[in-house]
Amino acid sequence: MTTHCNRPLYALGIETSCDETSAAVVALDDGSGDILSNVVLSQIAEHSAFGGVVPEIAARAHVEALDGVIRAALDDAGMELSGLDLVSATAGPGLIGGLIVGLMTGKAIAAASGLPLVPVNHLEAHALTARLTNGTAFPYLLLLVSGGHTQVVLVRGVGNYERWATTIDDALGEAFDKTAKLLGLPYPGGPAVEDAAVKGDAGRFALPRPLRGEERPDFSFSGLKTAVRQKANELAPVTEQDIRDICASFQQAIVDTLTERIGKSLMRFRGEFAGITEPTLVVAGGVAANKTIRGSLETLCAAHGMRLVAPPPALCSDNGAMIAWAGLERFAAGLADDDALSFAPRPRWPLDEFAIPLVGHGKRGAKA
Ligand code: KG4
Ligand code: ZN
Fold this sequence. Notes:
The protein has 11 helices and 10 strands. By secondary structure, the protein is α/β, with parallel strands linked by helices. It folds into 2 domains: 9-130 and 315-349, ATPase, nucleotide binding domain (Nucleotidyltransferase, domain 5), CATH 3.30.420.40; 137-313, ATPase, nucleotide binding domain (Nucleotidyltransferase, domain 5, 2-Layer Sandwich), CATH 3.30.420. It is globular, with a radius of gyration of 20 Å. Bound molecules: 5'-O-[(R)-(carboxyoxy)(hydroxy)phosphoryl]adenosine and zinc ion. Zinc ion binds next to helix 4.
């Protein structure tokens, strides 16, 4: 990678695409990254009563919190705007209200300070995080598992992505959240299901493994959620132990499904990139925080002669540091847009613009 000068570049990153208001200062020095600050303000308390993210509440909360979060990020880093080289802000995909708040704030800071603005694709930021945390070299395979996306993407370089697999219905995080909701567990559902599963019997319920054995490498999770609903209805009223056993059986079905489905993309990667020294699968997105899933991915990668890179959970879920880093990577690669101040937010913005949309895909693709 080349930087434009011999000193480090510093970026302020702003993230407001969903239910986290976040800002961070990150440095890029000779190809490697350094997080000087990363302030993340979660809106979980505002949304939990509704069992999910309410877009209007999210946008209002971003408006109220963002200035203070940016100030705190600059203070934590010991920086003023004058010390920065660029400002980057998530421009999509995501909830439009939040995107407007973050991108407009980024534009205002850029216009007032004379700094360049780099509008960032939130999915690209997830995709490049492993380079910030682990210095992972291109090319690598990315498994993005979040509340809005479940994709396997070939990452060839900055701005060069090829989607190999995606979900035909629910995203994986969405399946966790819906399962939690129907069992009466709190939002966000992923951590609640993972906790409940610890004391559960994964063998008690035989839940489906959607698309198992199919040639295509895609994913499907909505049938699994329906099967959980049927089980819960059969058992009603469910006991605490029933809930634990359902969660454990659900998580086992997810692990089996991911292992079987992702195996296809790993084999393809090994075939197409036979010569590379460290074939790598990077996992990113909120679901990557799940320890059982991480463990099963380790085993899967080892079986395919690949290395698993999983950024720390705090950098797998939404944060400003990954936005700052993606801005730096784009800027350093000469991909920053000269006309960024007129860039409009994009609620839908696929990483691979040329991928053929699948039936059912994008139903809830606003979130990443
Ligand atoms: O990437 P992320 O923080 O936000 C977006 O979706 O943009 O991902 C959030 C998703 C939620 O669906 C949440 O339930 C899920 O990640 N999640 C988990 C865990 N922690 C968060 N899913 C399974 N196990 C977890 N430990
Ligand atoms: Zn995300």
